[in-house]
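Homework help thread (please don't just give me the answer)

Our assignment gives two proteins as sequence + structure token strings and asks us to describe the second one. The first is just a warm-up. Here they are:
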Amino acid sequence: MRILLSRTDRIGDLVLSTPAIATVRASFPDAHLAIVTSEYNRVVVERNDDIDELIILPNGTSARSFGSRLGGYDIAVALAPRAVDMRLVGGTRAALRVGYTYERRWLARLTAALYVNRVMVSEADPELCDREPGRIVRHEVVQLLDLVELAGARRRIWDLRLDLTAQDRVVAQTLPNEPILLHLGQRWFSDGSTLDSTLSIVDELAALAPVVITCARDSEANAPAFEERKSVARLMRALPFHQWAAVLEHARVVVTVDTGATHVASAVRRPTLVAFEHRYFRLNSQEWSPYRVPHVLVRKPAREDEDSLSRFRREIVSGVVGLLEGSHA
């Protein structure tokens, strides 16, 4: 049997797909299992021996045409609810083609039959979650396990997977012991959070433990402000993916906004505090919360007045205190 999976979007989403990948492997141990990724997110699975073949979708390539060149598959599964992955899977013309979309993406639901012959409809809808406070949304990991079950993969594996080596972990040997790690992403600097307020958060966290900062590319412009801060023990930029994961693994607690750092921290089993966006908090805090690790979820304020920012800072520091105490319980 030949099975093809496709996930060409973000790094964090592919991290959350690793239990589904492992479930397909465990359910079809003798199959040839291939996965299509982008050049960007391939780092998540390039060491993963659940996969027999890693295929890169070139930038700018027609997904359906590319899929048509990947013939000979019995099963193809789009692990992302995106047109790119659905079209790629459809192009394979595999006998069983599986994908999913969201409840109120009406056009996507109508066109899904063009690409897949088994479709899962996800209950994850930001507007419905705001209207219906009791609405339950499955975690992304669970949704993906339910998805691959439609393809016959029923032997569920629940753990996230990242393959780190001793060489990856060398980078963390020069860091302080048991630091708080704060990952900078652009969402620290907009829509209910500011540069000055984030610097104050770092100052307050430094009173609890040494603070190490990692920096996403979208936050490079703000990195110097943190490098100059006396409360920052170390700021690390442009780390290769596996070294970055090893630095997160070294932390006692990870603090981040809603980025891939949330899911990498879960994969290396670190307690995590996530500041989610104010809008659609009810959805995001269910579907993309830290997975199977101690965590605290904080809602960013709707405004950037000082009272709101001060409350936001207190919630973050209080949440980190709780996670630090729990990590030594």
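The one we have to describe:
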Amino acid sequence: MPNGLKSPPPDLRVAVAGLGAIGQKIARALDEGIDGMVLAAVAARDPAKHRSWLAKLKRPPALVPIEALSEAADLVIECAPGNLMRSIVAPFVESGKTAVVVSAGALLDHEDLIELARQHGGQIVVPTGALIGLDAVTAAAVGTIHSVRMVTRKPIQGLVGAPYLVENNIDIAGITEPLRIFEGTARDAAKGFPANLNVAVALSLAGIGPDRTRLEIWADPTVTRNVHRIEVESDSARFSMTIENIPSENPKTGLITALSVIAWLRKQRAALRVGT
């Protein structure tokens, strides 16, 4: 290169595992162009369902089984059901690569993956997702956090069918006013509401852990957005945050979740990075 300039590093090959509302949005953003990134491969439970959609991309990626993703890419974005998280993440971190985990709740059932990543030089990234303020929580955790409390309010359709409701015979279909349906730890919330509370697990991992992070969940027929309020007491600051997320095509997931992953991808080769 002239004038002593270094050649740019090769593009990172990115795989997307799962082509639901989140996965498709991330795949489309990669196809449209993110500096230093290329969409190399995707995996889906029903490949035939997605072939025509993938064919419309500018550079259609390889459509491969989950077990082939780690050979095809340097980094994977996991956007699949939580029961597939381990099979997606483990091969990447064992190879010293990076896995971005959207199904953060599933990590609590597979915490050994963190040690696996440590042993092999891999990395598991839990994106900010549907929250705000994780930078503040991680900064406060460098000192001492005394308490973290989160209150979540969701429209009825975003909670129907959750295992906790089924197991406890809680019927929310006909409620006409807000109903508190859960109070407990982030760990228990992740088990009872696996499709809804990845956000609480991300908060707990950033702060004082899933057994000390307290959570309330409200089924609320008066709201149309997923509302999260966080209150943190620490030796460095007391702060509270509220976010109202517009649901994506999947009512259990906020639209901003996919945007959070895209923002993280854009940071990887950016000349300026803002945020911790």
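TA reply:
I won't write it for you, but here's a hint about the kind of observation we're looking for: The longest helix spans residues 255-267.
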